[in-house]
């Protein structure tokens, strides 16, 4: 005699009212997500929720013009030899796909020589020269074309940039090793740091991890050594309150705001930082 197979109890059918409620909730969530993404792509969220100015790639237009003209195509990201350019997401409030640079993690060291991100930009959001109808921000215009140290001996040694993207600043002089009169030896950001930079004594065209290039300095001047722009940063003597003469980094007018000094600084947090879109003040 065959024993009948026990039947699993059937789940009670969802009521029409509950089904409609679940559907409305799903459609509301879908609409909200689509609206957020749409606003981000249009540039509204970057404008309304930005709290800290982001460092933009070289040649970026003024922030509002940049956000409205950038189509978030990612071409600038693809051509950067040190992967300095990142794309923002909803979490940082700068919209989906808006390019920016986190100098502490990876600065622009101009390893490409010609500023390839500007050449790759299809919309003019990154440009060598602004159209006449766009105003140059006060303090953004460079007095002269910056000389790239790596190209100093070339027939054409300058970068084709008219405006800076920020200005470096000694934000924490008390933690600066130069101000303290201290040396530096070893890997500037430790063995785990993934940042890259080109070294002319290694390979002009191939940036290497900074951790693979240890230093041995009697007095720390890493920011000055690493700065890719000639005469943008130098050490100068200062006399402290105790009457002792020490050296301090001094930012000069040719600074373009690339962020290499902030990336290379061994202090944690960095003693020297770049203020995005900050004007030059003599």
Automatic annotation (TrEMBL):
Residues 60-90, 97-131, 207-238, 247-277 form the 4Fe-4S ferredoxin-type domain. InterPro entries: 4Fe4S_Fe-S-bd, 4Fe4S_Fe_S_CS, Polyferredoxin-like_ET, TAT_signal. Keywords: Iron, Iron-sulfur, Metal-binding. GO terms for molecular function: iron-sulfur cluster binding; metal ion binding. Pfam families: Fer4_7. This is 4Fe-4S ferredoxin.
């Amino acid at each position: 005699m065959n024993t009948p197979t026990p039947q699993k109890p059937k789940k009670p059918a969802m009521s029409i009212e509950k089904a409609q409620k679940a559907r409305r909730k799903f459609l509301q969530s879908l609409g909200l997500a689509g609206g957020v993404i749409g606003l981000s792509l249009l540039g509204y969220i970057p404008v309304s929720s930005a709290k800290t100015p982001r460092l933009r790639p070289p040649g970026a237009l003024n922030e509002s013009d940049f956000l409205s003209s950038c189509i978030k195509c990612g071409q600038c990201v693809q051509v950067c030899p040190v992967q300095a350019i990142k794309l923002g997401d909803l979490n940082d409030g700068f919209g989906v796909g808006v390019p920016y640079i986190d100098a502490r993690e990876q600065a622009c060291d101009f390893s490409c020589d010609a500023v390839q991100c500007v050449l790759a930009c299809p919309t003019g959001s990154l440009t060598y020269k602004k159209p006449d109808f766009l105003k140059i921000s006060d303090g953004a215009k460079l007095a002269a074309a910056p000389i790239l140290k790596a190209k100093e001996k070339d027939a054409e040694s300058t970068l084709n940039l008219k405006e800076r993207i920020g200005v470096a600043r000694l934000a924490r002089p008390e933690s600066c090793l130069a101000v303290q009169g201290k040396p530096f030896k070893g890997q500037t950001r430790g063995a785990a740091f993934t940042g890259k930079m080109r070294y002319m004594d290694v390979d002009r065209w191939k940036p290497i991890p900074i951790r693979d290039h240890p230093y041995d300095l009697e007095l720390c001047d890493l920011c000055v050594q690493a700065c890719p722009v000639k005469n943008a940063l130098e050490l100068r003597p200062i006399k402290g309150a105790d009457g002792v003469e020490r050296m301090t980094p001094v930012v000069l007018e040719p600074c373009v705001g690339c962020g290499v000094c902030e990336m290379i600084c061994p202090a944690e947090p960095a003693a020297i930082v770049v203020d995005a879109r900050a004007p030059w003040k003599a």
